[in-house]
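Narrative summary of target 7.
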Amino acid sequence: MVEVQLLGPVELSVGGNAVEVGPPQRRTVMAALAVDVGRPVAVDVVIERVWGPRAPDGARGAVHAHVARIRRVCEQGAESAREPLCLVRRSGGYLLEARPDQVDVYRFRQLVDQARAAGPAGPERARLLREALGLWRGEPLSGLNGEWAARMREAWRRQHQDAAVGWARAELRHGEPASLIGPLTGLLGEYPLAEPLAEALMRALHETGRSAEALDCYATVRKRLAEELGTDTGSALRQLHQSILRGHRSASAPRPELTAVVRQTEHPAQLPMAVRGFTGRDDELARLAAILASAEGESAAVVISAVSGMAGVGKTALAVHWARRVEHAFPDGQLYVNLRGFDPQGSVMPPTEAVRGFLDALGVRPERVPPGLEAQVGLYRSLLAGRRMMVVLDNARDEEQVRPLLPGAVGCMALVTSRNRLTGLAATEGAHLLAVDPLTPDAARDVLAERLGVDRVAAEPEAVADVVTWCAGLPLALAVVSARAAAHPRQPLRTLAEQLRVAGGRLDALDGGEEASQVRAVFSWSYSALSRPAARLFRLLALHPGPDLDQRAAAALAGLEPDRVRALLAELTGGHLLVEHVPGRYAFHDLLRVYAGELVTAYDDEWERRAALHRMMDHYLHSARAADVLVTPQPNPVEVPAPSPGANAVEPEDYGRAVAWFVAEHPVLLEIVRQPQPGFDGHVWRLVSVLTTFLDRHGYWQALLTAAHSALMAAEREASLAGRAGAHRGLGLALDRLRCPEPAREHYLRALELFAALGSDAGQARTHQHLSRMSAVHWNSELVLEHAYLSLQHYRAAGDRAGQAAALNHIGWRQAHLGDHLRALAHCEQALELARAAGDLAGQAHISDSLGYIHHQLGQYQQAVDHYRQAARRFHATGERHSEVACLLCLGDSHHSAGQPDAADEVWARALALTTELGLPDDDPLRTRLNDRIGQRPLT
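Modeled conformation, tokenized:
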């Protein structure tokens, strides 16, 4: 048999004898084809894998030459082998024809999947993993350079490490511990930071009476983790260490498999950027450290509320600084959310939005997010169970906003900041309350010394005392003053203090009393130092609804080119009047937003404010419309007026960038809808219309429900039939997804009436499509087809080919499930032609999947295989990975029915591996069905 070996130097093996392929570049071409054995690889893909994005001019010719020489090597090997390799030309590329197990990396994966199917324990699992590990001959793709080879090497090394951990655990259950010490020592040398391997070696040493060496192993690993990662060992390794110290001999007792869980979950790192120049707060930091230390072993999550009498005291800076300091204690990640409890514009974040954001960060797919807050909180807490995570709940308003977001798992910690003293959490949840007061004069001087230098501060003690007084002990004010002083290093601090005194004399007192008045003087003084364009931008930014914005939105508010605004934003962030809290996105502190709001009302007339708002609203509306066009191929029935000059709308280049824009901006869009500005009702309902598809596909159904209600009120104020129709469609869709079919149906039918009155075929087509799908969920076959045919009729009237394709596919799919396979086939074949003509790749994927199902039901298994293969490739290309897995399962079924069990097993194993990449839990229906299939017949 001829085999391709990639798990080491790239070689061909003929009957067990290595055959040299050639120089490194040719070996890279061989590897680039072998990783897709059985599938055509385009020449452009080979070029990218060999040379990367900057290929030389002669790359294509070089590939052809290398392929010709590789083909000769394969042909020579075929003369003495029963199972040869064939390298053939296919349209646009090359295909390596061979069984997957003729490539060692595929054989490795097959063995690992067989071991997984064998269960968590047993000698068979150990044998299969031992055989899989034996395929490794050194570093994968040894001697090959380039980004692609490095990516493959790293991915395969992770799989190797996982297999090694699984083998070690299986062997410990049923093998001889003494025989494992040598191999485990070698593996730990290869992966010195792999705690599961260290744990297995320590168990083997302890079980054979070599406990002292086990403790030495622990000390070595702990030192490596501290030196290289700045972290400590995990809880499992620490518990084993303590068990050995106590002399317990239960080290090889069966334990739950944790490897799959670790691979299947995300490790979020959501903390904001570190606070530059943070100093002081030693007492508060010590108190937090003491609370964390005392919490070890407690049965409940620790909750801390950092409270002060006024804003700007530095609660968020303290929380973020300390959370970053103790990151090592929470190796499973950190969650962060700004709850906007005291937002000047009243936009408090509801718990539903916050917990949904956490589920996104934890890697939960939209289709797996349950409806309703209670179910989402249950899922969130389940995901945190067994993990050590820090959850920072910043700027909370009250206990009710916080409670649903508290983790319930041992080992997790919730750090809450609020202006209110959350005594209810202390009484009910056992929270530790920590009051954060303004800085003392000495601590405030230390902050200035840290930012301006000790010598400069010591040289003018009286001036520093005046500055400290005006800053009222608030870190925010000190940061603003320090930025101004640092920008003028030759200016005496006495001059700055005098400027502060004059600025304070010009200001009326705020409701907060003397301290607030002093801080406002600091803001005024810093604002007065801005250039006129930056000062104008600072004022206009107060019109933005929050929570943050990017450069183009700021440019729209100011009516300037984005490049011009970049320098102004830098001027504002340099003066600490604005924060770039993540790269490219800017936000106000609450106090500064209030101050900017006062200024824009005082210095910019109503016409200027309205013009800025109009540009901003046009910016978001037209950017969202451009993104929506790429997200869904069916044209939106809503007409959008031309943008005003200076709107600076974004035009994403492709589907991925459109989704990325929505992900970044949808919190802003929802704020615009929640806080409708007088005179902009048309923007509100149109914005909801173009936002609906994104919110639906990503599972933000509660947000869609709220937004659609706002859209309906805006449309009624404007007396817009189109707006009311779209809002009713959005309400129906949200209620449909939230499993409220009766009110959903009422809104859908109202939307149909209004779209009919408008003569909007596109609107009626979409709404009938929703009704057809909802009827299918509730098993009403007559209504399914009735609405599907009406949807098709209206899509034809609208001239929408992609919509027609979707409707025809829906009709065909339902007919197939009713047993009318020939009519179903005709409808889906027509749908595929229309989707191709419309360039709708996602539609083609779903239609090919339907055709595969129909041919399978007709007993035409090879045709089913062909369609399922096309569907799987298209799902992969469009990023619909869950649909890809479901399609691969059906592809395997068709292979099996066609009498091709080897091909079926290979496809099922590939699908099962993909479910692991997607993080599907073990009880997911797809994983269960795949495991059942693979269990019917062992892989060969």
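The longest strand covers residues 390-396.
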